[in-house]
Design goal:
The chain is α+β, with helices and mostly antiparallel strands and about 100 residues long. The protein contains 2 helices and 3 strands.
């Protein structure tokens, strides 16, 4: 279920404070945060926010197209390493086993 329009977008208090301070000073520093659940607001545009993915901080440059999305959407937590070689050979039409004689 979506969040009520009356309440507005959710942004952690500590994160919005850091962004507002940077906006007042006209600085462009990287802000590190664990808050993957925070929604990107127009105040964050043109800033770089480093979002933690469970292992390291992923720097994300915020553009206008990202407004309304969550920070966690841009810092994937899982790494896809590919499928096994055996299944890839079967799908590619590799050598099939010879039929057994009856």
């Amino acid at each position: 279920m979506a969040r009520s329009i009356k309440k507005g977008a959710f942004v952690d208090g500590h994160l919005i404070e850091k962004v507002e301070i940077l906006n007042r000073r006209n600085e462009k520093k990287v802000v590190r945060t664990f808050s993957r659940r925070s929604t990107i607001t127009p105040e964050m545009v043109a800033h770089t926010i480093a979002v933690h993915n469970g292992r390291k901080f992923i720097p994300i440059y915020i553009s206008e197209n990202m407004v309304g999305h969550k920070l966690g959407e841009f810092a994937p937590t899982r790494t896809f390493k590919g499928h096994s070689v055996k299944s890839a050979a079967e799908k590619a039409g590799g050598p099939s086993p010879a039929p057994r004689p009856a």
